[in-house]
Amino acid sequence: MSGRHGAARRRLLLAAGIGLALVLAAAAFGPLSELTRPSAGGCARDLPPGALDAVTDAAVYRVEETFDPRLGEYTCVLYDRDDRRLLSVAALSDRDAVRSALVADLAERVHEETSLQALPDGLPGLVTHYGWFHLLPPCPGLERPDDGFDHRPLVTVRGPSGEVGEGTLALAVALTNAVAERLDCGAPPLRHDGGFRAAEPTAAEEAAGTPCGVLATGPLPEPRRGGWTVSAAATDTAPAGRCTLRTTDGQTALVLTSWFGEWGLPIIDAQHRWYADSARQGQLRGPYLGTNWAWAAAICDGAPAHFGLRLSRPWREFDAGVLHAVLDQFARDQVARRDCHDLRMPELPAQE
Length: 352
What we know:
Helices cover 27% and strands 24% of the residues.
């Protein structure tokens, strides 16, 4: 009997010793959950060292990853210990799927184009106010459509809580390069050396020389009070951009937008239906000039491009002649910057 009690006592002491060792290890190296945390895999391996730590203090506990090379589709989601999303990336290659994804995120909020932010020069992408980084990397390895238009995959990345900043952009660029490699795109990787910041209103003259330069040098009327400011959220490589003209007291007067790619047509169509002067004019037939809304079109890099102008509300200073002149200078500058052709402008109404 005493033998059995002695064996039980030894097992109890052994268990206690193991427990004490684990407690000491936890004290030395952190909580037990950190010691037993599963190692990060999937797209976490595609990130530069410390890149995720720069945007969140949470650790990766779970990874979901799928890849279909036949369809050219890839997804990866990183979760923390509370099963909250830390980072997500999704890639699409089919042109219709790319168009649907971009339109779903952009066209339904046509009245919120001021949330659009072009990524820095050299990066073919944009980010929305809601934290979706959309990049369209060059991909010669993709089969070219029958219509001959340039076709690129779409890589969409969202960081913790939809943060829009330098750290999340670094993640987006790294993940886009990794996806392009998985898709055998055969193009040089994208590079970003820092310097990303959201567009802020500055004195209008500071926009000179930028894709928003028409708002610094164009035929603008004098504001009713104060001066003009410009938020330049456009570059020479982004698939979309915006230029916002405001008064110095913060009133938005005019927004210029550009959309480069076949996917931009449904967005222009949505804007046109929203802003055209009447329901009858809401059918998209060709370049248009109305009271508060106008647009033009061209061919850039083998694909359709569209340029829009919208007044926030009626301003008597911005008559049809001013709107046409501003849109004309904006569109011609974009065409020159991107080596486009076949610019189509709306007709200026005949003078009565």
